[in-house]
Amino acid sequence: MTNQEAQERIRELSKDLHHYNYMYYQKHVSVVTDYKFDKLLEELIDLEEKFPQFKKDDSPSQRVGGTITKDFPTIKHRYRMLSLGNTYSKDDLLDFDKRLKKLLGDDKEIEYICELKFDGVSISLTYENGKLVTAATRGDGVQGDDVTANARTIRTVPISIQGNSFPANFEVRGEVFMPNKVFEAINAQRVKEGKDLYANPRNTASGTMKLQDSAEVAKRKLDAYLYFLLGDNLPYKTHEEAIKAVESWGFHVSPTYKRCTGIDAVMEYVNHWEKERKNLPVDTDGVVIKVNDIDLQEQLGFTSKSPRWAIAYKYKAESVSTVLNSITYQVGRTGSVTPVAELTPVQLAGTTVKRASLHNADEIESRLQLHENDTVFVEKGGEIIPKVTGVDLTKRAANAQAVKFIDHCPECGTALVRKDGEANHYCPNEKGCPPQIKGRIEHFIQRNALDIDSMGGETINQLFEKGLVKNVADLYDLTLKQLLSLDRFGEKSAHNLIEGLKQSKSISFARVLYGLGIRFVGKTVAQKLAVHFKTMEAIQKASHDELVAVEDIGGRIADSLIEHFKDTENLDVINRLKAAGLQFEDNTPVLQKDSDKLDGKTFVVSGTFQQFSRDEIKQKIEANGGKVVSSISKKLDYLIAGDKMGPSKLDKAKKLDVTMISEDEFVQMVGGPPQATPTAKSVNPTPGLFD
Ligand SMILES: NC(=O)c1ccc[n+]([C@@H]2O[C@H](COP(=O)([O-])OP(=O)(O)OC[C@H]3O[C@@H](n4cnc5c(N)ncnc54)[C@H](O)[C@@H]3O)[C@@H](O)[C@H]2O)c1
Ligand SMILES: [Zn+2]
């Protein structure tokens, strides 16, 4: 390779790697596989070693890959957060062990701690006097994003540590991840909603940690494993002791770590988990091998990017090649079109793979540049949904045609549209496109909406095919006779369905509104709209300004509502549902505002009370302008402590110095029990459930 070629290649590699880093850390998207990324980085490091004159200070080989964003305040790390040297080769592990022995000038077997390498996002948590004060992402290693509010939603991250055997100031580091079960459930829900699938748990976890709304983060049920303790003058001599201490303070430490003396024992651990890791509830992409003795760690020190006393051995994602037979296109409830690769069946990581996700047009035409009958590589992205990762160009026929994304809906023939800035194509034929119509009916009858569980997908199919149901209002015109004309539909099923429809007439307005499937009107939004406007009529009449004045209703939602009500067919459906007797008025009792005495104050209610039920006390707080929250934090104004309050609540409140008041003190604050509420008390049978 000439100097010029090397310079050119280094420039090219640096540019690509910078781009992949940007996409991975900022956009939570893997443009290439980790394996490919690591190989390119290795090539760059290699070239820079041979041609050091072309190595730049800002080369991806010299810096931790992440960056900070402008969406969050920045936190400067007290101790730099580094990356790890990594390898896919077992020989390199032997070299690593040899290198360390040489550096230490001692031939004695080294004691290592092996841990699994969890595939998520790194997090740094700092504690002062046992209280969580900050949580930061790794960022560029020097400073990271302040994601404290989001980290607080992770149930296994203690906000306050029990006991008193911990250092006054310390930092713990670990990995925030999304358990595979949670990831699958989220994707299953997205399928139902006709939305794009998330690619893998790691990117979903990293995207989730960067959400602005921590209530949304809480719903995503992230978890965290901690694996590193830092602080000044800590008493621990080994990494293992430190980890055990971290565990004893109530942090979530994966029990999979193991002390291994000598590299042979390390190899055994690596080999054991290569298969076994597939049974874990979380993705792992390798093993991290750390020198156990902290003195030795200090002797070995760091390079610019990673500690010399640790290395990551990464398992190669299993990949197979197979033939792409065709591409099919699925149209979801919202009209979004998802391409799916139909493959010659092949065995992969224990299952037969026949289909793989292709995401969108860019994936097909730009990233993969698929041609007909290509031989493609398939990997299990995050071990779950198989994914086409690349094309074996050596097997491509000379005359193969490039695949073009369809331009018309495969279901109804309407020209597809793609909105600016969106990756997906949509079929705009909302009213006439069968999967969209059927999808809307499925949405309407689901458990969170009208809850008509006597009706399944197959029934909807038949009703649609026979022309009996074209929209949700048609459901209420169905007759017993029509139902009995359906295949495999007996008396009993027919009666059940009619009964289900009848019962749905008492379902609350908020759920009916949600069931209509208006774009962007999810469960919470529907609830807010129903409570605020009380009637469908009022919502229909509301102006854009009036809509966005409601808490949590943004411009996009308002636009969508206004758009929906402009359509005469939609109005017709609403009117027919009304005529059929469905609820279009909110009848949750009107809360009378007593005063503004508690304006801006937050409360946690815990235990049981003499004069109030918990719901009453909550109503009273709100009626006086206060807000009820569910968890005790430093920022909390008052904890109203009743009888049988949970001891952990009490402890926490004391630790955080939260003001605790009794029921009587609360009554004095607002004056008298609520007038509007009935006398019968609904005592909460399980104290602690509410808070
Ligand atoms: N596919 C892509 O486009 C793309 C782009 C950028 C980076 N990446 C991937 O990310 C890697 C670089 O990321 P990185 O710098 O975080 O390095 P890394 O993933 O190789 O290792 C360091 C990280 O491992 C994590 N970790 C998990 N378990 C751990 C444990 N038990 N002990 C210590 N650390 C543990 C920590 O978060 C730590 O920051 C690349 O090697 C590549 O595989 C992929
Ligand atoms: Zn269509």
From TrEMBL:
Q: Which residues bind NAD(+)?
A: 34-38, 83-84, 115, 138, 175, 290, 314
What EC number(s) is this enzyme filed under? 6.5.1.2
Keywords of the record, alphabetical order, are: DNA damage, DNA repair, DNA replication, Ligase, Magnesium, Manganese, Metal-binding, NAD, Zinc
UniProt domain BRCT: residue ranges? 593-670
Cofactors (names):
Mg(2+); Mn(2+)
Q: Does the keyword Manganese apply?
A: yes
Report which reactions are catalysed by this protein: NAD(+) + (deoxyribonucleotide)n-3'-hydroxyl + 5'-phospho-(deoxyribonucleotide)m = (deoxyribonucleotide)n+m + AMP + beta-nicotinamide D-nucleotide
Biological process (GO) annotations held by this record are: DNA repair; DNA replication
| Stretches the record annotates as Disordered | 670-691
Catalytic center at which residues?
117 (n6-amp-lysine intermediate)
Identify the SMART domains for this entry.
BRCT (SM00292), HhH1 (SM00278), LIGANc (SM00532)
Q: Specify one Pfam family.
A: BRCT
Q: List GO molecular-function terms, semicolon-separated.
A: DNA binding; DNA ligase (NAD+) activity; metal ion binding
**What is the protein's known function?**
DNA ligase that catalyzes the formation of phosphodiester linkages between 5'-phosphoryl and 3'-hydroxyl groups in double-stranded DNA using NAD as a coenzyme and as the energy source for the reaction. It is essential for DNA replication and repair of damaged DNA.
> What family does the Swiss-Prot or TrEMBL record give for this protein?
Belongs to the NAD-dependent DNA ligase family. LigA subfamily.
Q: Which NCBIfam families match?
A: dnlj, PRK07956.1
What is the protein's given name? Answer: DNA ligase
Taxonomic lineage is: Bacteria, Pseudomonadati, Bacteroidota, Cytophagia, Cytophagales
State the encoding gene.
Answer: ligA
